[in-house]
Amino acid sequence: MSPFLVTTLLIIGLLIAAGLYRVWAGPTVFDRLVAIALVSVNGVIVLVILGFVLDRAALFLDIALAYALLAFLLPIALGRYFEERDDGMSSDGLPSPRRAPKPTGVIPHGLLAERGRRETAQRAIEARRRHQQASYPHGEAAPPASLGPTPPRPDHDPDDHDDTTDDPPREGGRS
Amino acid sequence: MTILADIIIGFGVFFIVVSTIALLIMPDLYTRAHAVAKSETLGLLLVFLGLFLRPEMDASSFGRLTFVLIFSLIANPTAVHALVRAASRSGALPWTVVDQEIADDELDAEDGLIVEPEEGSR
Question: Tell me, what's the pLDDT at A175?
């Protein structure tokens, strides 16, 4: 029963409470799960130190081991589940639809973020178009600028005017 | 020996505190997961190494603590990695410079530096 270990125990208990704030507030479900992972590791540390404080180290270490095993399985299983589930809540960093947005005088953050991402995509398309105009300087028909993968530059044979660079549309991120 | 153990445990608690603060104030999922996966694991390692040097340590708890330590060192980054991979596959977007500019604009709007149009006039 050393006062240092008791102090450590109290500090990590406060950190568990702070991590539970992220579980409560985190905008997407994956934020909550990452916070749960941190709370679980803090819980393992609390159990181990509690065993040393109470002088029942072997018993508490067994409990901590079982808890660590369960806490290892939980984020993996729930991450797989929410990866497959497509309800929009976990996709965009937007707030959970169950909670109404805060009434402020400005445009809500989600719409602003969406607009900003659209502008970023537009800038990327224009940069790609400039790059292609630099790559096809002789008036050849450049393939349409898009966000897809960069089409391979045709060979430098001037007789080979093969403009049918019909790339298939890019598949979604996952198969 | 106890002083050394307390110093090592103190460093471990420092890293755990840093990890939890980062979990609270970081802007998006990937930075939070970075803090949880690395800093938290280092803090756990240091706390357990300090506990190995405590005088309460005996032979029966030595093997158990070693096993919990090794398992947690492997399991915690693996779990966070699986979570972040699932989030990335389901389309979570990282915090970018554009988001930073939008946040700065919102802060300026709160300070009255930018007059945003009213709700509904869009």
Answer: 46
> Which whole number is the average pLDDT over A72-77?
89
Residues 119-158 of A with CB under 8 A from B: 119-120
Q: Do B90 and A93 touch (CB under 8 A)?
A: no
Closest chain B CA to residue A84: B90
Which sequence spans correspond to the domains of chain A?
3-84
Tokens of A108: 């809500």
Residue with structure tokens 């030595």? B62
Confidence check: pLDDT of B8 > 60:
yes
Per-residue pLDDT tens over the stretch A117-147: 677 777 777 777 776 666 665 555 555 555 5
Interior angle at CA A66, CA A60 and CA A67, nearest 5 = 85
Q: Cβ–Cβ of A116/B24 closer than 8 Å?
A: no
Residue in this structure with the two tokens 């507030």, named with its chain if needed: A25
B44, B83, B114: best mutation site toward chain A, by most A Cβ within 10 Å?
B83
* Residues in A touching B23 (Cβ below 8 Å): 18-19, 22, 34-35, 38
- Name the minimum distance, in Å, from the CA of B8 to any CA of chain A: 12
8-state DSSP, B56? T
Q: Which residues of A124-152 are buried (b: 16+ CB within 10 A; e: fewer)?
A: eeeebeeebeeeeeeeeebbebeeeeeee
Pairs from A98-106 (Cβ < 8 Å, separation ≥ 24): A105/B109, A105/B116, A105/B118, A105/B119, A106/B106, A106/B109, A106/B110, A106/B116
Q: Among A110, A105, A104, A150, which residue's Cα sits nearest to residue A127?
A: A150
Amino acid in the structure at residue A90: S
- Complex-level ipTM: 0.82
Average pLDDT over residues A43-50: 93
User: What DSSP line would sit under A3-28, residue for residue?
Assistant: HHHHHHHHHHHHHHHHHHHHHHH-SS
